[in-house]
Design brief:
It comes from Sphingomonas rubra. It holds the Pfam family DUF3892. This is DUF3892 domain-containing protein. This protein is mostly beta strands. The protein has one domain. Helices cover 10% and strands 52% of the residues. It is built from 1 helix and 8 strands, in the order ββββαββββ. The strands form 2 sheets. A 5-stranded mixed sheet has the order 1-5-6-7-8. A 3-stranded antiparallel sheet has the order 2-3-4.
């Protein structure tokens, strides 16, 4: 199992009804949100990001509109992923 840092994301267009993440990426890789969700649930990889030097693990949350990814740090779920820059 690899421990993978996420450094960028892609979001749905602003004119969409929901600002959701479509892709997550890092140093030389970019996966769809669903690929990341499957990898987390299958325990094949772990994913994290860094916020102000602090590690925030990425987990899967089952929402009203299906599963999505979210960061978890200091015992709380938060939206740090949306603050990451866009992937190329």
């Amino acid at each position: 199992m690899a421990d993978v840092q996420v450094t960028c994301i892609n979001k749905q267009p602003r004119n969409s009804t929901h600002e959701g993440i479509t892709h997550l990426g890092g140093n030389g890789w970019k996966w769809t949100r669903n690929e990341v969700i499957q990898s987390i649930r299958g325990k094949t990889n772990t994913f994290f990001t860094r916020v102000n030097g602090t590690r925030a693990d990425i987990g899967v949350v089952d929402g009203q509109n299906g599963p999505y990814v979210r960061t978890y740090a200091d015992g709380k779920w938060n939206d740090n992923l949306l603050a990451l820059p866009e992937c190329a």
